[in-house]
Amino acid sequence: MPSSSMVIVSKQTVYPQNNSAIKSLKLSVSDLPMLSCQYIQKGVLLPAPLLSSASLISFFKLSLSKTLSHFPALAGRLGTDDATGHVYILCNDAGVDLYHAKASHLSTATLIPPPDQDIPAAYRRFFQLDDTLSYAGHHKPLVTIQITELADAVFVGCTMNHAVVDGTSFWNFFNTFAEIARGESKISRAPDFCRDTVFDSPAVLAFPAGGPSVTFSGDEPLREKIFHFSREAILRLKSRANNTKPTQKPQVSSAEIMSKQSNDNWAVAHNCKSNGKLTSVMETNPPTAEISSFQSLCAQLWRSVTRARNLAPTKMTTFRMAVNCRHRIEPRLAPLYFGNGIQSIPTFATSGELLANDLSWGADQLHDNVVAHDDATVRRGVKDWESNPRLFPLGNFDGAMITMGSSPRFPMYDNDFGWGRPLAVRSGKANKFDGKISAFPGREGNGSVDLEVVLAPETMAGLENDLEFMQYVS
Predict the structure, then answer these.
(1) pLDDT for 126
(2) Do residues 415 and 424 touch, judged by C-beta distance below 8 A?
(3) Containing H/E element for 445?
(4) 384 CB contacts (<8 Å, ≥6 apart)?
(5) Which of 469, 406, 394 is nearest to 435 (CA)?
(6) How far, in Å, CA of 437 to CA of 439, rounded?
(7) Is 464 helix (H, G, I), strand (E, B) or coil?
(8) Residue 257 has pLDDT above 60, yes or no
(9) What pLDDT, in 10s, does the model give residues 390-420?
(10) 3-class SS at 338?
(11) What 3-state class would DSSP assign to 351?
């Protein structure tokens, strides 16, 4: 193998150790819109184990086979019932793909550069199924794992169908994979495959011939960078956001916008469609009267990216985050409900009002929407989608949108496969566009956060020079 290249050494199909006891699972109103989104690509950079290549791959194959027995849906394929039009996960034990790759020219020093540098492009080669829409799960595996051996580390890249899982379900599978690899005889967080929920619906989503198309180009120049925020920095942000409550509200508040379900009206005005869904889970605890640490951080990002974009004061901006609905509905869903259990919260403000007011103003807009998202709001969102079933148009359609994905609450650094915690958590190229942000926990834990920020080059340069933002970055 040339010293400066990555090669795929092998590919094999891995089947569940035990046959599935589940026949099928119908996709819900939270799952179906994701069929136009690309597969999720997330992975962990691990220290190098004291195993030969052959032993390493055998180890991962056995662990994966055992894990799939607990997640039989992931070893299946999608299928559409011709009579009803409903889409199902067929739990047919068709298996998942396991790739073994080598890139001995790459080291941890290269892959974890100094904080002022961009994310190395090499990470994009650690995942399979690039540019693949979740609809392709009708004929492609719902999960693909790539094990890449590096000079002094191993990267475990997991690519998973987004119509089948959200962030909660994705990381529960990943955590269980690591738990079984460590030799645990009984898993600690069994998934719940119940489908008798508010998200189950007789509504049918129609598809164009050949399936949906991606809703963002994916060809525009982008920069990707990790910004790290220590616990102390985030507490300073939170204190600032809660110090003074805004005395002025926009003429129509964000909470009122949500209650009137004007997300679709806004989308029509901007020549796009919206379905009120998003790609991840942000708020997992019940809302309180206090603006949270994460809402404070999001508000600062919203302000600083908007300023870096140099938008006209009258330009309407949008900050999208998602809420975990598992605990917001009555009766509650199981915390480990398997599937997509999320709804989007878009918050709107003109560039002028966002920047003319202080941080607490923007943070309060985000907070209001989280507080307002209760059982009734969730059910209104379901009814609205049923009245007009539609796919989720992921992207930045007017140059003034930010989409927050993933969550710093997900236990990403718990993925110890038996020889040490991850050195880093990174993603592939899937679902990335100008304004796509992913939130990860910081490796040191204790409330620290890493933001994976994807922006147009000129906007990233502006953000790097934004003193209000950079004072919190370490």
Answers:
(1) 98
(2) no
(3) none
(4) 261, 264, 276
(5) 394
(6) 7
(7) helix
(8) no
(9) 999 899 999 999 999 999 999 999 999 999 9
(10) coil
(11) helix
